[in-house]
Amino acid sequence: MADGEPRQPGLFFIGLAAAWEVLLPARREGYEGGTSVLRRTLRESAGRVLTGLVRPSAWLWLFRLLKDCLAWTVHRLATAPGSLPAVFKEWRNKVTVFLLVPRASRLLGIVPSPDLDLKPALQQAEARDPFSGLWLLEGLVHDVVFSFFHQNKQPKGVLQGNLPEHMTTALHAGLGLALAQWAFEPCRRSDNDVLLESRLQLFLDLCRENAQAENINASLESLGVYIHVFRPFLLHRLDAVLAARTDRLRDYFWHGVGRGVYFAMQNAVPYSDRNQLAFIDRNAPDETGKQHALAGLAWTCVLVNHRHPAVIDRIWIQPHGERLSREPGFARGVACAAMMRAWISPDSGYNRALLDYRGGCYWSELVVQPIQLALESALPIIRSKGNLSAVLDHMTIGAYLHALV
């Protein structure tokens, strides 16, 4: 837990969702683990909740969170009662990812070590169902990186070998998350800016030493995920440091923050969609940062709920479609998620399900049209002349295609 950051109550909802997922084995999708996973998750959640609730700040945080969510929940249930099944399905999808990523090695039966031959392990992860495979790739790389640290070794060249091209974005995202955790986990509120900058430099050096040069931006982007989810008290201080730089690291950072917003513990509460958008509106430093954050949010939302188009439609498009239609970042995130899915598991059928789904009035504009453009026009060019990670360097996919052509 971050210094004084009362986020533990959100873990309670994760524990409940884990119980829902594991106790209904006929409806389980995407991970294994059985009752042992359930017991561990509930034990960890209950312990942290009880520890956090002795703090007055936690009670205040929980009151504000539930007050905001309750008002929106009542409104949504009154105006769109059919959204309730989608809310619980999204809840289950998030928890499936929560259980897949940190337990990747265990679920694959692999003992991570600095000497692990990645190729057979990657093939094993890819052999799982398409939904699980993506998240297991991220988690596996994270475990391999930490196997170096556990042996007091500094990782070097972890992903700089010859990797399957279609896996590189997912692998580099997992690499960046592990390196961000190693660099920033020791940080506390009382740390001065000099120490913060030294931690940032450590993270950047580790990324350069372990990532492929053409895919390093996918690793750098994960810094925003880690900071928002686990060290949110550093968010604005680190943004100020990044604003003084001349590279694109700040853009990557806010794209990662958008991903982190979707996975943040407080957003494990049902009907937290409005809070997520409000957080981006309040905290993004400028319009560019806001659009990158919305792209990261959309990217993650689609990848987590790819199997269930109704979740994306009823939780995000129907209530927020008018607003999101004015935000180009959201459509870009949807398109990038579709390209990533088509790249890593082209036969999954997930993109086709989104294209065939008949959603609300903004579904075509925000989902169908961006995906069609991405798959029919952008992806063939990117495959032949570029790489998917480089999309992060541009505000729109069209701008990246123009740079390639």
How large is the count of helical segments?
19
The number of distinct structural domains comes to 1
Give unreliable regions as ranges.
1-38
Number of separate strands: 0
**Spatial extent as radius of gyration:** 20 Å
For the termini, the CA-CA separation is: 47 Å
Largest beta sheet, briefly? none
Strand and helix map with partners:
Layout: H1 9-23, H2 34-52, H3 56-79, H4 84-100, H5 104-108, H6 118-126, H7 130-150, H8 168-184, H9 193-210, H10 216-230, H11 235-243, H12 249-263, H13 273-283, H14 287-305, H15 309-324, H16 328-344, H17 350-356, H18 363-385, H19 397-404
Helix pairs in contact: 1-2, 1-4, 4-15, 6-7, 7-8, 8-9, 8-10, 10-12, 12-14, 14-16, 16-18, 18-19
Could you please describe the fold and organization of this structure?
The structure is a single chain. The protein has 405 residues and is mainly α. It has one domain (9-404). Helix content is 70%, strand content 0%. The protein has helices at residues 9-23, 34-52, 56-79, 84-100, 104-108, 118-126, 130-150, 168-184, 193-210, 216-230, 235-243, 249-263, 273-283, 287-305, 309-324, 328-344, 350-356, 363-385, 397-404. Helix 1 crosses helix 4 (84-100), helix 10 (216-230) crosses helix 12 and helix 18 (363-385) packs parallel to helix 19 (397-404). It is globular, with a radius of gyration of 20 Å. It starts with 8 loop residues before the first helix and ends with a helix.
